[in-house]
Please model this.
Amino acid sequence: MIALAGPNLPHDVITASQRGAGPLGFDPDRDSPRARQWLETKFAPWAPPVLEAWLGGEYDHLDHVLFSRAEDTSQRLYYYCCELQRRGLLGGPRPLIFDIAKIPRPASLDRTVTQVRELMRFLEVTEDALEEAIVRNNRQRALKAPETVRPICLLTGTAPPDRRLHSVIAGAGFEPSARTLAEDWVDLGEPVAEGTGDPARAVGSVLHARGDGPRSFSDPARHLAAEIERRGASAVIHWRIEEDEAQTWHLPAERRVLEASGLPSLVLTRRDWLCRDGAVDEIGAFLEGVGA
Model:
């Protein structure tokens, strides 16, 4: 079985393999003393509890964990796990990495398609099986979110560890629109072209072009504007944690988008991923004011 630990992964290949175990599970609130012996503080905060669980044998039922080069912590944790296993300090499943390339040029596209083909060979996935998985997953991609009568609050920025912020938003009378970290790891993305005769290239093309994620070359501010319109948001909360420092370079442009939208918005930066810093109260007070 293969668990996923990162974004922008080839879900159609995993579906075709019939070995998918979903997102790698972990407890975001657990203490991680052994893991922190090796991990620097600027790892995203999901890494220590994942490594702590791995060290404790909690993933021994898995065959592999698939990481992604589309996100820095996912990529780095892969190499740390490989080195710890090489030194005999870590057991459990074998780490794998999907070495996606995101630069918008033909060589990067070809590199990504090659990675899709290599993963297919490793998992013994045939082209016919991949084509069937694409058709099946496209049905899921075509499903629309349930209609809601409540105003929508778009939660953007860092993917939260679970639905604790969603609960705050819902408790204030709004419909939360956001993915948790685990939901981000298993998000199927845009539809993949069917019946092309080369399903690996069809999958690789969508992965290469995917615009969300920290290593995408798309404009985050433009993506934010598109999400506001697509979701029909009535309010926006832009929440980024302390460790998500690389993305703060985009904040001025994202603020301009929020101002231009005319929507009530709350910007929270350098925050605690576990919301121990008063963010819950700030969000509740903000939405109470919006709804008043």
Notes: Residues 81 and 95 are 7 Å apart (CA to CA).
